[in-house]
Structures are given as structure tokens and as C-alpha cells.
Amino acid sequence: MEIRNQLVEHYLPLVNIIAGRLAMSLPSHVDRDDLIISGYFGLMDAVDRYDIRRGNKFETYAGIRISGAMKDELRSRDWISVSLRQKIRKYESAVVELEGRLGRSATDEELACELKMSVEQVHHLEQQINAATVIPLGEYMKSEAAMTADTDPHKSAEYVEIRETLAKALDELTEKEKLVVSLYYYDELTMKEISLIMHLSEARICQLHTKAMFKLRGFLANIDGI
Asked: Residue 49: which of 149, 156, 155 has the closest Cα?
């Protein structure tokens, strides 16, 4: 018990880091302290479940459990409003309709015209949608990482299937969209950090992320209902 408590105390800063990173992508009414509390329980769960014989780094394993606990808390509260859900469906329908009609990605101006909004209003909506779509794909990424932590990937048919499915889905993205997804979900950079690397505005990075999420969700929905 003493060693357990020492581990929890040592890795408490990791809870704050993950909560801060997730909070950046969420609406202001989501309480960061609630994320930290749920993350603390995720950390304790990681300490209890960690098996050193598997040869995985504890920090990596704990990060998965902490992040998962925070996202479970958000899902349980159903923090996305009904009106935002309606806007998401309308936006998604417009993107699918336009790209199907044009045979290419729609420009901001074309999308604004389709939605009967100004370009600025579309950008604001995309920022809202961006926050709402982080959790579903993040959960998919987490399931892939958890598979690595909890099983032998060379022996897991499910792990191989997840890897292949995700690879196919990523092939549907543009190069910029792929880069944003890679930097955000695998390198765990913030939108601001990605904007500096790609020399684009933070708003533009959010737009690329939003469009990538809809493409990936559409592809993955046929596999696991995301």
C-alpha cells in the first residue's frame, strides 16, 4: 500500500498534464477539476492493474487509463447540447453532399454558401464541432493503444484488424489532414503547437481536424459504430 501511494503521488502531475491538454479542446463550461478527479481514479486503476512482466512503460500505460477515465466522465455527462448535435448533423450532411457533388474537398466559401452562413460563422461552428469530435476518435485511438498495452500485438487478430482499418481510414485524408491527426493524436501536441509547426493559423488547424474527423468517422462507422 505504501508503494502504491508513492506511485500515485509521483504520477499526479501526469493527471494535470492530460487534463490540461483535453480541456483545451472542450467548451469553457466543462470543469477541469472534474477531469482531474476522474483522472486521479484512472491513475489509481492503472497502479492496481499494471503488470511489470509485460515490459510496458508504466507512464504510457497510466496515460491511457487516465485519459480513458476522463473521457468516460465526459461521456457520462453527455456534455454536447442537443442544438450542437443538430448543427453537427447539418454540417456533416453539407460536407458529404458538397464533396459528392464536386468530386473534391469543398472550400470554406462553398461550405458557407451551402449552410447559408458567413465564412466566419462556419469557422466558429467548426471550432465547436472540433471539440465534440475529439472524444469519439480519441476513444478509438485509446482502444488501439490499450490493445498494445494489454496484449501481445503479434498474437492479437483484433489488434491487427484495428491497425489495418485505421491505416485505410487515414488514406482517405489529405496530406495536411493526416499530419494534423498524427501530431494531435500520436505526438499529443496541442492545436496551437501544431499551428506553429505547419505555419497555419490555429483556426485553420481546427478546421483541418474537424474535416478529418468527419472523414474518419464515416469510414470507421462501418466497423465499430463510432
From this structure: 149
CB 203 within 8 A of CB 123: yes
Sign of CA pseudo-dihedral 52, 58, 62, 65: negative
C-alpha cell at 88: 453537427
DSSP 154: T
pLDDT score, position 43: 92
10 Å Cβ neighbour count for 14? 17
**pLDDT tens figures, 41-70:** 999 989 888 888 877 788 888 888 898 888
Q: Of the candidates 58, 56, 32, 62, which has an alpha carbon nearest to the alpha carbon of residue 44?
A: 62
Q: Tell me, what's the pLDDT at 143? A: 46
Given the C-alpha cell 493524436, which residue does it identify?
A: 185
CA 116 to CA 226: how far, in whole Å?
28
CB atoms within 10 A of CB 55: 6
With contact defined as beta carbons under 8 Å apart, do 206 and 24 qualify?
no
Give CA–CA dist 26/30, Å, rounded: 7
Rounded Cα distance between 50 and 62, Å, is 8
* Gyration radius from the chain CA atoms: 19
**Mean pLDDT to the nearest integer, 85-114:** 82
User: 64 is written with which cell numbers?
Assistant: 491511457
Is the CB of residue 222 less than 8 Å from the CB of residue 179? no
